Amino acid sequence: MLGRRRRGGPPQGPRRRPDGPGPAAHDDRGRRVTGGPDLVVAGAGGGLAGALRAAELGLGVVVVEATEHFRRGNNTSMSTAMFPGAGSRWQAAEDVDDSPERFVADIMAKTKGRADARLARTLARVSAPLVEWLADSAGLPLSLVTDFNYPGHSVPRCHSVPGRHGSSVIDHLARRVREHPGIDLLVPAKLVDVATGPAGAVRAAVVQYPDGTREEIPTGAVLLATNGFGADRALVERHLPEIAGALYQGGDQSLGDALRIGGGLGAATGYLDAYQGHGAVAAGAGTLVGWATVVHGGIMVDLGGRRFGDETRGYSEYAAELAARPGATGWIVLDETIVEQCQGFKDFRDTVESGVLVRAGDAEELAKATGLPPDA
Q1: Residue 364, class by beta-carbon neighbours within 10 Å (0-12 exposed, 13-18 middle, 19+ buried)?
Q2: Phi and psi dihedrals of 48, rounded to 5?
Q3: What is the mean pLDDT of residues 277-302?
Q4: How much is the pLDDT for 240?
Q5: Is the residue at 156 inside a domain?
Q6: pTM value?
Q7: In whole angstroms, what is the distance from residue 366 CA to residue 127 CA?
Q8: Residue 25 confidence (pLDDT) above 80
Q9: The pLDDT value given to residue 71
């Protein structure tokens, strides 16, 4: 059943390069097994980039993805495609003074010192090389975002694609994966377990197909790229009680698979109470208004017409605060200048085209159109 989808062609067997650098699979008795891929990647979001990099290094790779609509239904495809890179060549071209150390300082300040400093340093050091790899090797048309900074960034360091939407990133990476001779894409197939030998070494990835049948793919390594647990209500209630009642705007396959499978293998966990919220989802449209509206000068009010905090602290912080307001709903108030400044975001254009944007000539008209108290 391996290779049931690969560039529209007939089924193919998995690749393994016997002389390659990848880890070998072993059976229950510790004997080396050949015939499987060097690496199985679970999740066709960020996992696509991982698969391309592994194949670039000479590994044979199989990517397994649970749903056929992954190009529109995972968190990467639903994102604004922002890739931070501290010290990138695009920053240098714009005379932006940045470094991994400055990025770490921003992270620690934004998280009030609670982030894992060692992990932050590690990620910050590879952030610019990663962005440049995405452009040079993966072929993404990236540029530095200079018209605004997301909360917490002291300098422009986010890079994005035209349209600033993750769907174009996924489309591009999926095409590269399908074209690569060293990668097979298996869709739909869900990773449900990782089988190990007596010494704990990975020997196979266990996948399940929609009809309920299961298959073991011999491999020596598995990359868990299945995102978080936002779509699992029980896990959200257990780990994120402050946001449990909020609208979930994310991929339907974010079910905690990596947490369950990794935990079962003895992997350590941490920061399970951390999340990225979003306080600017358009009610009735299901689109992101986008926090750029606030960064450019918009304000948020609750159903009583009152501001309830400093919006510049961040959209994730504001998600919990909005969820705690009556009705868990508010309004972003902006002007036509801000509307024009946000046209670079596909999400915002989709929001405008959905018809949910209410226009008014003055405060009285706005109150009448929105139902907000005119004297607020």
Answers
A1: exposed
A2: -65, -40
A3: 90
A4: 95
A5: yes
A6: 0.85
A7: 43
A8: no
A9: 86
